[in-house]
């Protein structure tokens, strides 16, 4: 047996390699750079790494390859679009993360301990969050371009493990943050086990771990359909957990509420792009010829997810939990694009993922600004009269809420209209009706928050709006401008996506 060395196309892999290199440099900075210089050094390395990676993604936008990494990844139009979306969302998320007041002074200490108090008094700052963020982004970049099950699983763990740690780094409400991290880790481990089990069944069905090999078995009908159905089911559980779809959503509200708010925004936006990117590739290419077997169940899950997220969000009195259930509802809307299984569905899903991701980071950046002496204020009752305290901040948050509701002249309306139109073309009329009904329900609780901010008198309870730092201000301005621009004039981006978004097999 002759060993054949793998051939790697480093140019096509360069966006991910740059991120990994930047993360490793960040680890070395933690070890060798003085505490005083670490924050600015880590921030500079992280932003520089993300920008350089984005430039490389732009350079390879017209490249296509099935053999960039010995057949384990695929570079095509959707891959480039999803990677660019992840990087843009990551850059604006890092601007919010840079406000280190959100993170504990010493992650390894017990909450309330003398060790923690000493770390706070000496001005310690947790800067490990920067290399952790880069490692997570590298995993997110690899996830939607994986073309075999082993690489897909490695990417899943690579994006998940840093997020488990980052969820437990909150400066205040440390016990809630640690509980969120533990809950996310344990449920994530269970979902990974299901994912591995599904991989085993798909290998048993097709005798291959590559997407091409599994697809050939599905097209040829050469395997045992029972193994295929079980494998698809377990793989789907792992993916549906990452996007927070019902009934695999239980972690979302607690983790969103307990994690540091900048991490919540990053996780809610970028992870969805990566996970749905992988879902689109798997269902549009590998399982496309087995549509009869997964479309009915996925349609039921999408309908339940949309309705559940919209209805339960009405009862929430915490803004982060409300946005968590809103995120669950949006996962249902995005599943509609997977069910559509046509070119229009692919284009609409990519547009929706980018538009929703940018608006989500902006919304959570606003949440970080509403504070009292104890830190962030997330109780909606204490947001009363926010429009009179800070008209610009309240108006911007209202803009994001209107985008989530799908109101015209926002990116949310274009995204929902496009994704529902694609599903209608494919014949999924029941799912579209459920989606429109869910959007109407969701509009109620979004508008309720707007009424609370602008049409009630402020309560003198110590709540105030902190002046945003320069970086947080950049994130908010960029997010609201993109949200409105894509609602008023979405044609250039939609045309660009339509031109590029074609899977190669």
What would you note in describing this structure?
- This protein has helices at residues 10-32, 38-59, 77-97, 114-121, 129-142, 149-166, 174-206, 211-220, 225-243, 251-258, 261-286, 291-314, 319-340, 343-367, 386-389, 391-405, 411-425, 429-454, 470-488, 491-500, and strands at residues 370-372, 375-376, 464-465.
- By secondary structure, the protein is mainly α.
- It has one domain.
- It has a three-stranded antiparallel sheet, with no helix packed on it.
- A hairpin with a 2-residue loop joins strand 1 and strand 2.
- It is globular.
Q: Nutshell version of this structure?
A:
The chain has 505 residues and is mainly alpha-helical. It has helices at residues 10-32, 38-59, 77-97, 114-121, 129-142, 149-166, 174-206, 211-220, 225-243, 251-258, 261-286, 291-314, 319-340, 343-367, 386-389, 391-405, 411-425, 429-454, 470-488, 491-500; strands spanning 370-372, 375-376, 464-465. The model has no long low-confidence stretch (mean pLDDT 87).
SSE blueprint and pairings:
Elements: H1 10-32, H2 38-59, H3 77-97, H4 114-121, H5 129-142, H6 149-166, H7 174-206, H8 211-220, H9 225-243, H10 251-258, H11 261-286, H12 291-314, H13 319-340, H14 343-367, E1 370-372, E2 375-376, H15 386-389, H16 391-405, H17 411-425, H18 429-454, E3 464-465, H19 470-488, H20 491-500
Descriptive labels:
505 residues, globular, 3 strands
Number of helices: 20
- The percentage of residues in β strands lies in under 5%
What's the pLDDT, averaged over the residues?
87
SSE sequence, one letter per element: HHHHHHHHHHHHHHEEHHHHEHH
Radius of gyration: 22 Å
Shape: globular
- What fraction, in percent, of the residue positions are helical? over 70%
Q: How many DSSP-defined strands?
A: 3
Q: Enumerate the strands of the largest sheet in spatial order, edge to edge or round the barrel.
A: 2-1-3
């Amino acid at each position: 047996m002759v060993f054949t060395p793998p051939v790697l196309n480093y140019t096509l892999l360069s966006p991910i390699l740059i991120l990994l290199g930047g993360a490793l440099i960040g680890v070395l900075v933690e070890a060798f750079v003085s505490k005083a210089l670490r924050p600015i050094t880590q921030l500079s390395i992280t932003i520089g790494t993300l920008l350089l990676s984005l430039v490389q993604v732009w350079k390879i936008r017209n490249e296509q390859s099935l053999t960039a990494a010995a057949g384990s990844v695929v570079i095509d139009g959707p891959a480039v679009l999803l990677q660019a979306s992840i990087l843009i969302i990551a850059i604006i998320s890092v601007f919010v993360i840079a406000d280190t007041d959100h993170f504990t002074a010493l992650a390894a200490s017990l909450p309330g301990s003398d060790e923690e108090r000493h770390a706070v008094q000496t001005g310690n700052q947790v800067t490990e969050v920067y290399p952790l963020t880069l490692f997570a982004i590298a995993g997110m970049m690899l996830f939607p371009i994986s073309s075999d099950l082993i690489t897909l699983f490695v990417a899943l763990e690579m994006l998940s493990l840093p997020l488990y740690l980052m969820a437990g780094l909150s400066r205040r409400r440390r016990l809630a943050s640690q509980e969120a991290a533990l809950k996310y880790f344990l449920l994530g481990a269970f979902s990974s086990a299901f994912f591995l089990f599904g991989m085993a069944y798909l290998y048993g069905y097709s005798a291959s771990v590559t997407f091409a090999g599994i697809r050939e078995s599905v097209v040829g009908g050469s395997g045992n359909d029972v193994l295929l159905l079980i494998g698809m089911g377990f793989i789907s559980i792992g993916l549906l957990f990452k996007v927070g779809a019902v009934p695999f959503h239980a972690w979302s509200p607690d983790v969103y509420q307990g994690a540091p708010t900048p991490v919540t925004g990053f996780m809610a936006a970028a992870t969805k792009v990566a996970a749905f990117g992988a879902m689109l590739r798997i269902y549009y290419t590998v399982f496309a010829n087995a549509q009869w077997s997964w479309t009915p169940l996925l349609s039921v899950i999408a309908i339940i997810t949309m309705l559940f997220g919209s209805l339960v969000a009405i009862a929430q009195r915490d803004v982060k939990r409300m946005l968590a259930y809103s995120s669950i509802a949006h996962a249902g809307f995005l599943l509609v694009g997977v069910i559509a299984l046509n070119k229009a569905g692919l284009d609409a899903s990519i547009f929706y993922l980018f538009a929703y991701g940018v608006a989500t980071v902006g919304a959570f950046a606003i949440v970080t600004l509403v504070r009292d002496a104890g830190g962030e204020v997330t109780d909606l009752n204490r947001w009363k009269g926010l429009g009179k305290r800070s008209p610009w901040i309240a108006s911007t948050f209202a803009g994001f809420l209107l985008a989530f509701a799908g109101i015209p002249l926002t990116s949310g309306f274009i995204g929902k209209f496009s994704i529902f139109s694609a599903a209608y073309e494919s014949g999924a009329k029941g799912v579209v009706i459920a989606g429109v009904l869910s959007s109407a329900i969701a509009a109620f609780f979004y508008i309720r928050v707007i009424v609370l901010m602008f049409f009630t008198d402020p309560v003198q309870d110590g709540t105030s709006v902190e002046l945003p730092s320069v970086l947080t201000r950049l994130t908010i301005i960029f997010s609201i401008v993109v949200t409105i621009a894509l609602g008023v004039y979405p044609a250039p981006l939609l045309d660009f996506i339509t031109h590029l978004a074609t899977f190669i097999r």
